[in-house]
Write a structure and sequence with these properties.
115 residues, four-stranded antiparallel β-sheet, seven-stranded mixed β-sheet, 0% helix, 11 strands
């Protein structure tokens, strides 16, 4: 089991920045991938960015060049730096992690971008 707790969401104007943090606990030594998903009202949850334990990253096309994902060396935290935020980035952002055979999600943090 891995427990995930997010923080850092809030209300920001378009063009602003936010940094999301996610702290992992439990069997963190088994983590293969960490990432961020988001779910906007009346939309399906979608992947935003992922990072492997080796540091390889992948981003949704909609956030490339604006968002940066990073992980700490002990695999106990994953971060999402979000710049040049747009109203369409408004969503609940959830931390995600995968260990062999299982994935976990945190409860999420709200990000609201006003125009």
């Amino acid at each position: 089991q891995v427990q995930l707790v997010e923080s850092g969401g809030g209300l920001v104007q378009a063009g602003g920045s936010l940094r999301l943090s996610c702290v992992a606990s439990g069997h963190t030594s088994r983590i293969l991938i960490m990432g961020w998903y988001r779910q906007a009202p009346e939309k399906q949850r979608e992947p935003v960015a992922t990072i492997t334990s080796g540091g390889n990253t992948n981003y949704a096309d909609s956030v490339k060049g604006r968002f940066t994902i990073s992980i700490d060396g002990a695999k106990k935290g994953v971060y999402l730096q979000m710049n040049s935020l747009k109203p369409e980035d408004t969503a609940v952002y959830c931390c995600n992690t995968i260990i062999p055979g299982v994935q976990f999600f945190g409860s999420g943090t709200q990000v609201t971008v006003s125009s």
